[in-house]
Structures are given as structure tokens and as C-alpha cells.
């Protein structure tokens, strides 16, 4: 029987699978951050679906990072993040309706949005409530229409409710929310793997 994403990720936090997941995503995240942080001075950062907080810890070490916050719906992931890192902020909350106290310059998310039943509403929430004017949202996903090898993941991982969209459909969701300068590309594509789809927009 398939489980809800939050339940699965809670299990992964307990089993240590989150650490391997972080290592696997590191090259794509390094690439995404390199693009998204270009030109930003003294920035505030949120990682949406932060898991064990590894991206928050990574970004917080940059000299120009004023604050770094991680938000995740899996309580066990947040507990793990807080146990590892007492310097940054971690919040267990539903991404669909959570709002930061103060808008930020950059929101990052890796392998999260397609787990939500209505990712368009999350993107709109981020646009309206999470970002400052000229703030940036960058998203990376491996589960999308053009990456055909990923289509079996809901069955393989036993996760319910994964949303399969194309590259064009993801870009359209950004544009519908109000983002400008929306662009997409695929990182580290190779034979049998279409690459990590990256989409970025500016408020």
C-alpha cells in the first residue's frame, strides 16, 4: 500500500536514507545555488521541503547569508535537522499554508513540489507571501514527463499522490503565479536520464 509522502520521509529520516538522498542531490543543488545566488548581496534564504536541513546548513555558511530557514512537513526530518544544527531555523509545517514572518530573497526547493496535491497553490503562496520584490524561486525536480525513467517511482517508492508534469507545464505554473524571467533547463542529462529539471523565476 502506498503511503503519504510525509510518512515515507519520516521513515527515511529514521532509517538514514535521507543522508544518501542528500548526497545524490548534491551536484544538482550545487549547480542550482550557483545560478540562484548570482549577484545576491546579504540575502535571506528558505529551503522548502528541507528534509534533514543539509541545504540550509550549506547555504548558511556563505558569508553573505543573513538568515537560513528550513521548512518541512515531516516531523522526524525537522527533529533531525534541529539535532544536527542549532544555529539556523527549522519549522515543521504544511508548505501549502505556511508563511514566513519576513519575506526573503531566495526560496530553493529540490525534489519536493510534485509530492504536493496542488503544487500550483504552493507556487502562488511562495510568490505572494515568501518572497521580497525581486526575490527568486528556484526548483529542481527529477520526476517529470520528459524523464521517462522516473515514471515508475510512485510504485517503486510506494508514495501516493505524486504529480507528473512536463517542463512546459511547470514553467506555466510559475508564470501563472506571477513570476517573470521564468526559465528552465536540465542539469546533468545523459543517456537514459533526462537530467534534473530546474525552473527559476523572479517576483
Describe this structure in words.
The protein has 203 residues and is of the alpha/beta class. The chain has one domain: Rossmann fold. It has seven helices and seven strands, in the order ααβαβαββαβααββ. It has helices at residues 5-15, 17-36, 54-60, 75-84, 119-130, 153-157, 167-177, and strands at residues 43-48, 65-72, 89-92, 104-110, 131-141, 180-187, 196-202. A seven-stranded mixed β-sheet has the order 3-2-1-4-5-7-6, with helices on both faces. α5 links the parallel β4 and β5. α5 runs parallel beside α7 (167-177). The N and C termini lie far apart (40 Å).
What key attributes describe this structure?
globular; seven-stranded mixed sheet; Rossmann fold; 37% helix; 203 residues; 7 helices; alpha/beta
**Strand line-up across the major sheet:** 3-2-1-4-5-7-6
Multimeric status of the protein: single chain
Distance between the ends: 40 Å
Helix content class: 25-40%
Poorly predicted sequence stretches spanning 5 or more consecutive residues: none
Total strand count, please?
7
CATH class: Alpha Beta
Corresponding CATH architecture: 3-Layer(aba) Sandwich
Radius of gyration using CA atoms only: 16 Å
Summarize the structure.
The chain is α/β, with parallel strands linked by helices and 203 residues long. 37% of the residues lie in helices and 25% in strands.
Amino acid at each position: 500500500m502506498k503511503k503519504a509522502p510525509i510518512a515515507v520521509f519520516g521513515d527515511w529520516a529514521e532509517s538514514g536514507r535521507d543522508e544518501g538522498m542528500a548526497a545524490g542531490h548534491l551536484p544538482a543543488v550545487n549547480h542550482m545555488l550557483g545560478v540562484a545566488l548570482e549577484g545576491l548581496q546579504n540575502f535571506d534564504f528558505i529551503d522548502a521541503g528541507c528534509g534533514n536541513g543539509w541545504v540550509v546548513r550549506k547555504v548558511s555558511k556563505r558569508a553573505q547569508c543573513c538568515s537560513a530557514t528550513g521548512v518541512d512537513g515531516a516531523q522526524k526530518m525537522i527533529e533531525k535537522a534541529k539535532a544536527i544544527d542549532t544555529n539556523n531555523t527549522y519549522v515543521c509545517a504544511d508548505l501549502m499554508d505556511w508563511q514566513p514572518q519576513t519575506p526573503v530573497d531566495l526560496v530553493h526547493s529540490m525534489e519536493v513540489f510534485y509530492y504536493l496535491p496542488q503544487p500550483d497553490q504552493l507556487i502562488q503562496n511562495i510568490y505572494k507571501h515568501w518572497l521580497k520584490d525581486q526575490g527568486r524561486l528556484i526548483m529542481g525536480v527529477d520526476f517529470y514527463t520528459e524523464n521517462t525513467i522516473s515514471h515508475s517511482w510512485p510504485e517503486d517508492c510506494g508514495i501516493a499522490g505524486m504529480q507528473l508534469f512536463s517542463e512546459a507545464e511547470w514553467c506555466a505554473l510559475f508564470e501563472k503565479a506571477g513570476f517573470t524571467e521564468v526559465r528552465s533547463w536540465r542539469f546533468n542529462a545523459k543517456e537514459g536520464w533526462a537530467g534534473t529539471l530546474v525552473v527559476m523565476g523572479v517576483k
